[in-house]
Design goal:
The protein has six helices and five strands. It starts with a strand and ends with a helix. Helices cover 42% and strands 19% of the residues. The chain is globular, with a radius of gyration of 16 Å. It is α/β, with parallel strands linked by helices. A five-stranded parallel beta sheet has the order 3-2-1-4-5, sandwiched between helices. The structure holds 4'-phosphopantetheine. The site of 4'-phosphopantetheine has 9 residues, from strand 1 and helix 4.
């Protein structure tokens, strides 16, 4: 039976930190489903479709799937036959938020485990929020996001090029 991890998030946009997490998740699970949360009340820099395209451009292996979901994560995890929820931890700041979510999810779906992987030491400062801020101000984010994201950021911030 193949072991499936569901990796949920906003991924607006996907960063090298997310990529590292998926790659390391594949050492533990047979399949990682990157699940882009669709929140109708929140408009992102990238549309959900663009975020999915980026994941599909980055991961060519059939062991990584990209999909979107709406509503409760635990319900979607059940629908996908996921064995665990996969999340990354960078800092103590992340911990409080993640601890709350993991325990709420545990309460909603006992038996569905949340597995945390620590961010790589050279990526602990990388976040989608900072990528958006730095790139909108003309900063170089080449070292922290993959090429499909860089290409799209360039189009947004330098549409004439
Ligand atoms: O990358 P993010 O934005 O920190 O991801 C947060 C996400 C999407 C994992 C979280 O908001 C979520 O699970 N949303 C789905 C709705 C839900 O189940 N909420 C209750 C979580 S305890």
């Amino acid at each position: 039976m193949s072991r499936i991890a569901l990796y949920p998030g906003s991924f607006d946009p996907l960063t090298n930190g997310h990529i590292s997490l998926v790659e390391r998740g594949l050492d533990i699970f047979d399949e990682v489903i990157v699940a882009v949360a669709h929140n109708p009340n929140k408009t992102g820099l990238f549309s959900v479709e663009e975020r999915l395209e980026i994941v599909r451009e980055v991961f060519k292996t059939p062991r990584v799937k990209a999909t979107t979901f709406q509503g409760l994560l635990v319900n979607f995890a059940k629908e996908m036959n996921a064995h665990a929820i996969l999340r990354g931890l960078r800092s103590v700041g992340d911990f409080e938020y993640e601890y709350q979510m993991a325990n709420m999810n545990r309460q909603l779906a006992p038996g569905l485990q949340t597995v945390f992987l620590m961010a790589e030491p050279d990526q602990f400062y990388v976040s989608s929020r900072l990528v958006k801020e730095v790139s909108s101000l003309g900063g170089d984010v080449t070292s922290v996001v993959p090429e499909p994201v860089l290409r799209r950021l360039a189009k947004i911030h330098n549409p004439s090029k």
